[in-house]
Specification:
The chain is mainly alpha-helical. The protein has one domain. It contains 15 helices and no strands.
Length: 308
Amino acid sequence: MKKSRIALMIGIAGISIFPILVKLGLTSGLISAFYRMFFALIILLPIVIFRKQFKWPTGRLILLSLLCGLLFGADVAVWNIAIEESTATQATLLTNLSPIWVGIGAFFFLVDKPKTNFWFGTVVALLGMMIIVGFEFFANLEFDRSFYFGILSGVFYSWYFLISKSILDKMNVPTFMTINLVGSVAFLGVINYVAGENFFNHSAAAWSVLVIQSITTQLIGWFALNYAISRMRATRVSLSLLSQSLITAILAWLILSEPITMQMILGCLVLLSGIAMTFVSKPLWAYLIPKKLVLFSQRRKRAKFNMH
């Protein structure tokens, strides 16, 4: 469990830099999504083959892994478009509704159902997100294409989590990542071609950013996250990813000189408190009941049982 939590923290740190790189605006959102997957694949493939980590799975698992790649590629694509057409704040907030969809999906489709603490933690974490962006933000929401793309991104994200959780129980992470990336590259390549995107004429700075996002976000970040998903509850991992807003805010302050306000600090503390709730094994309500009262109730039950 300790290794999976360390992997989760590394993964969150890796993906937190991505919104900063997208915000630089050196390429379009769609082409950025394509090269994030493409460079990750051409770097990962020879490593996996040379180290003999690729294990051929069954045909069903291959198809499901390719489906995960399509879903993940679609998620990144529509999220990038939502950032371009609105603000990074709105797009990130709407995408981060994904823990709700993951929780609902896990309740209906996974054996490991969400615990009560997950729902409490989700409410508190989302409250933290609302504090970070400001309650007045919601009064200015526009229900346009970028709004629906932000919501759709979160839905794709949640489907990816639920399906990948079932796959990673039967497949090692390098094999899954390789097949997953093939699916993403193929899907995003077709989408970019149909959209008439520019594949080649980019500046040296743009190519550098595209390679950096592939290594930090896709290879390091998602390799670590997939390892965590394979060993932890999908609901817990998806909710923990909300903490990337804190790291992104710090990176935006360091790189883009964006200010960090007391409101943002308070919101991040509330958000992290919500995430922490999901890591508590005992139901939260149990901490509100005095221990003596619990022991008294247990003695009464044992006494009644002995009488029978």
